[in-house]
Every structure is written in C-alpha cells, then in structure tokens.
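quick one: phenylalanine bound model?
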Amino acid sequence: MTTSQGPRAHWSNRWAFFLVTVGSAVGLGNIWKFPYMTGSNGGSAFVLVYLACILAIGVPLLMAETLLGRRGQGNPVATMRVLADEAGATRWWQVIGLIGIVGAFIILSFYSVVAGWVLEYTWRAASGFAALPKEAFADAFGALLASPGKLIFWHTVFMALTAAVVLGGVTSGIERANKIMMPALFAILVFLVGYGALAADLPAAFRFLFHFDPSAINRGVLFAAMGHAFFTLSLGMGAIITYGSYLGREVSIPRTCLAIAAADTGVALLAGLSIFAIVFAQGLEPAAGPGLLLQTLPLAFSQMPGGHVVGLVFFVLVVFAAWTSAISLLEPGVSLLVERFDLGRKAAVTLLSSGVWLLGVAVALSFNEWSAFSLFGLGLFDLLDTLTTKIMMPLAGLLIALFAAWTMKRAHVEEEVGLRGGAFRLWYGVVRYVSPVAIVLIFLNVIGILG
Ligand code: PHE
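yep, here:
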C-alpha cells in the first residue's frame, strides 16, 4: 500500500521488530505497576494468575494482533477495514482500531504523568538521596503530587521526548531509538539483579513472588491480573497492530511473539525480584501501592552501599522503558492521521501529542487542584486506568480473538500466522475458544454474575 508519503515503511529486519515490540511491551507496566500490584494483591497469588493469563490469553492474542497488522498493512482502522472486506464481513469491525486508538490516547495521558514522576526522581537520584527517616520519603513524594507546576513540567518534557522520536518516522525514529535504549535496558537490569543477589535479600524476594498460594486468589486478583496481562503486552491498543503493519513477510510470527512475551515476562519478574530484594533487605513494606517505586526504593537507595550509583542507574532504566512504550502509544494515532487525513507526519505528531498533553494536564491536576473530582468513587487517574486497562483492553482483545478465529477465513489465518498441523490447531483452538471464554468469565465473575 502506498500513501502520499510514498511506499509504506517497514522495519529493517526481524531483529528490529523484536526490539521495538519488546520496547513497547516493557514499560512502566513491568517496573512500576507489576511490582506494586504484586505487593498489594498478595504476592505470589497475583503472579500465578498473571502468568496463567499471559499464557492462555496474552501470547495467543499477541500473535493474533500481529497477524492482523501484517495482513492489513495500514493504520489500525484501515487494517480492520481491509480485513473485514477480505472476509466479506461488516465494516463495523473497524471499531477494533478505533477502541485501540482512543485507548492509546487515554493511556498515554496518564502514562506520561507517571513517567514525569520518574524523570523528577532521576533528577533527584543524580545528586543522590540523602539518608533521612522513612516519613521524609513519603512526604517528598506527597509534595511532588501536590505540586501542579512540577507535575506539568515533567509531563511536558516526557511528551516532548516521545513526540521527538515519533517525528523521526518508523525506521530513523522509532527503530533507531529502540536499538539504543533496549540493549542498554537489558544491561542495566542484569546489573541490578546481580546487585540484588549480592547486596540485598534475593531469597526473600523469591519466596514472596513464587511461593504459590492459591488460597489468596479472589475476584479482585483475577480481574487485576487479566487487565495487567493485556497492559504489559500492549494488547488491543493499536500498538501491536501498527507495529505488525510495518512487519515484512519473512518473519515468523509465532516464534517472534513467543520471544517477545518471554522477554516481557522475564523483565517483569527480574524487576520484581530486584525491587523486592531491596525492599525486604531494608525491612520495608511490599504493599506500598503506586508509591512503591518512588517512596520505598529511594529510601533503600539512600541506605545501601553504592546506592547513589545504583539509584541513578535504576531510574535511567525506568525512563528508557517508559519512553519506548510511550512511542508505541503515539504511533497508532499518528499513522491514522497521516494515512486517513493526509496530514504530514509533523502536523500529525504535533496535533496528537498536544491533545494527549492536554488530557495529561488534567491528570496532573487531579492529584492536587482538582482532587475533589471523582466518578464511581475513583479519581481521574484511577478512572482512566480502570477504563482502559480493565475494560477497553479486554474488550478489544475479545473482539480481536473473535475476528481472527471466527470471522477471518481459516485459510488466510493459517497462511498469515505460518503455523502448520497440530501447532496451528492448538493456537487456533485457544484463540477461538479459550481466550474469549476466559475473558468473558473473568468479566462475569467481576460483575458478580458468577462465583
Ligand atoms: N506495555 C506497556 C507497559 O507495560 C504499556 C502499553 C500499553 C504500551 C498499551 C502500549 C500499548 O508499560
């Protein structure tokens, strides 16, 4: 397909697709959200359900979403139109693309505010965290949340960083940034786990994450773990469809997707291990909630040998992780604006990131000036998080499964995914029955119809 911008861009090679998609998947979800959700949802119980969701729902859908993107070769909405036409189905399926683009817009608005916290802490880490009593760290984080100026400043910096990369285009912007940041991220992570093994309490962290205790599983844990499986694999939000649409035909989707999911899960578990190793070594509270990364860890860094360097390196890691994910949240909407409305890349990036920025300002203000606002008992931040992660993502995932396994012609799916025989039947069966049923069951369970 060509647009007025010339022939459609493609990743330079298979390795590039792997890197950018891991870059999208590995983000604040792995390093900020996963540890605090694990800490607040009973540790190993959450990990167990999360791993099950990744296997039964996440990986099969990651493959399905990638294959839709590669076959459609367009922005998320155009891709769904092309594929619906090919299958002789209603064009209403375009709603998958639309949910994705709107969802990505919303996620990026609060994602950027959280990434802004991380930028502020990277800045603080550069001069070292002073050894102060525990309350001082909680107060320092509280003071940041209470300061609209600081929140908006760092949110603006982060959106500018994200926009700058997307402006560079598919290969010279997105691919290049990932090729630098992702290897650095892995190196830092290995260093941190090594440090955790030597200087912190790795065995305690291991017990906390893997001492499987099914009795702690309840409705809340199920729902949270499913939502998080979607979030961490970047599913249903246009990111994977879009990145898949820049994918060449020579790449094996199953193998690459398995590797991507393994890398993403590996990073979450390693980050969890190193963070809890530090938390337990310092006798701190694992269930500190969203502040875990920003209150508990700086306190630990201020007391550990070599904490100054480790702290700085750690926050740089989180910035890289967040940045490469944010890029993948901006690109789907940009590709839509460019292809559908014939905007130049520059205009599309400016327009979209300004919109996201504006919603992000509202999120930043919801922590202070507008903190009285709430809907269904949730502040704006939790509201947007719940709406996207727990509702829009599973819904988009369900529709993707139904489209790929019930609406598309089986022969087309088989040809695109490139699996044969038993392997194909297994995957197809999972996407056809297991994933949709699991998503619906968890939904019903949460609404209280089941259980
Ligand atoms: N997967 C990213 C993370 O874990 C977040 C993300 C969600 C990115 C959806 C793109 C699309 O932080």
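The pocket of phenylalanine is lined by residues 24-25, 27-30, 104, 107, 231-232, 234, 237, 239, 325, 328-329 (CB under 6 Å).
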